[in-house]
Write a structure and sequence with these properties.
- This protein has about 270 residues and is of the alpha/beta class.
- It has a single domain, classed as Carbon-nitrogen hydrolase (Nitrilase/N-carbamoyl-D-aminoacid amidohydrolase, 4-Layer Sandwich).
- It contains 7 helices and 12 strands.
- The longest helix has 15 residues.
- It starts with 13 loop residues before the first strand and ends in an 8-residue tail after the last helix.
- The N terminus is likely disordered.
Length: about 270
């Protein structure tokens, strides 16, 4: 493991949305991509958020079984080592092989080695034919504060947002693989989930083209959205990192203005 970097004196927690293209059903290639991005990460970053299925990609047929990864397998261990070397937390998605089922899973890998997992609760279209849905919500302590995890299509479900409001979250991290023709909906939903929860939202989208299955193009458009629903920063379609500090004072000011949703009388 390489020596940890010297982080500059930055008071605000800083998140990097690591927008990238993926190779469907090629974990070795994707793990190499994620490790390289972590090694080259801006030294200000405390957390690196990667797109949906960052380690495996996705295709809705039998090839997915060969690409699925175990939570305790060498691929996740390699990414966890890279995150620890960079002294950042990493949020990465993958098709999880759970033995008797497969899931669309996120792993939050803290630099101290602790791991937290979330299985996508709302599967989109052909995901339902090859994956099982998760049945639990996940909130994790991050440098940003209490952070809820959602995956892509989960954004559409207002009751998920409301449940995470009740869990008193300060932020949402949302890996996605949104189709380019519907990019406007991704933009809208990221802003809505920030505004209806009065919290930061960080969405990291897959970019590039689908490499297996039907042709398709992904939207990219990773974004950091303020607690008032305004876009703090956004990417287009290119492969690069969106690095943004999430000033706690912005969250405090907005909650002072409109009230913390979790603290309102029900």
């Amino acid at each position: 493991m390489s020596a940890r970097r010297l982080r500059p004196d930055v008071s605000d927690p800083t998140v990097a949305a690591c927008q990238c293209a993926l190779a469907d059903c090629d974990p070795a290639a994707n793990v190499a991509t994620v490790r390289a991005r972590l090694a080259g990460l801006d030294e200000r970053a405390d957390v690196a958020v990667f797109p949906e299925y960052a380690l495996t990609g996705f295709v809705a047929d039998d090839r997915l079984a060969d690409a699925a990864l175990a939570r305790d397998g060498p691929e996740l261990a390699a990414v966890a080592d890279a995150a620890a070397s960079a002294d950042v937390a990493a949020l990465v998605g993958f098709v999880e092989d759970a033995g008797d089922a497969r899931y669309n899973t996120l792993a939050y890998l803290a630099p101290d080695g602790e791991r937290t997992h979330y299985r996508k609760r709302h599967l989109w279209a052909d995901e339902r034919a090859v994956l099982d849905a998760g049945d639990e919500r996940t909130v994790v302590e991050t440098p940003v504060g209490r952070t809820g995890l959602l995956t892509c299509y989960d954004l559409n479900f207002v009751h998920e947002s409301a449940a995470l409001v009740d869990a008193d979250t300060d932020a949402l991290f949302v890996p996605g693989a949104w189709p380019a023709p519907h990019a406007a909906n991704w933009d809208l939903l990221l802003r809505a989930r920030a505004l209806d929860g009065v919290r930061w939202v960080v969405g990291c989208g897959r970019t590039g083209e689908r490499t297996l299955g039907d042709p398709g193009v992904y939207a990219g458009r990773s974004a950091v959205v303020r607690p008032d629903g305004a876009v703090r920063a956004r990417l287009g379609w290119d492969e690069r990192d969106l690095v943004a500090p999430l000033d706690p004072a912005v969250l405090a000011d907005q909650r002072a203005l409109v009230g913390s949703v979790a603290q309102r009388e029900r």
